[in-house]
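Supplementary notes for students who missed Thursday's class. We covered one full example, reproduced here. Read the sequence, then the structure, then the short commentary at the end.
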Amino acid sequence: MGGSRAHYGAPDQRCPLSRKRTYQRIPIPITFALAGAVMFTTALASTTTGNAARVTGAGRPDRAPVAAVALAAFAAPRAAVAPSAPQARPPLRTPRRIAKAMLVHRFGWKAWQFKYLNRLWAIESGWNRYASNPYSGAYGIPQAVPGSKMSSAGPGWQWNARTQIRWGMRYIQARYRTPYWAWRQQHAYGWY
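Structure (token representation):
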């Protein structure tokens, strides 16, 4: 039995219960990434928990909130970058934006004319497409009398801001040539 016994003290054999450990070498970029993640998690945990761990009924600190916050922090940037995330819809076109675009592209007026159109229709209707005057029967953004006249500019004159704006600009072009002169009329006499 003398030669068949395993001797754990020999240099070629290791004891499974030995305290000596061997470490595997970790590449430097991975080391820095891990260290940064640990520092980020620690900083995040200290700001969210106020540098104090809550103590549970058993008298030991509760670290579950810290882990949840750290996981949420790492998951949030990935979700924001994900290609399957739905795209944000562009803002709806307000009557003012519609009018500003039509002023230049459809009627050929200079962009500075919008200042006078804005003033004119802000006084007349406040750019409200449902504005109505019970005394005169005026209706819509340009306050057409009667409102049914705007049906010549397109469908849905009762609710469609584009139709109302188109009719109002045609009226201004035919009668005053530009919003500036329509504003001058409104300013001088209180109507246009």
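Commentary. The longest strand covers residues 54-55. Confidence is low (pLDDT under 50) at residues 77-82. If anything here is unclear, bring it to office hours.
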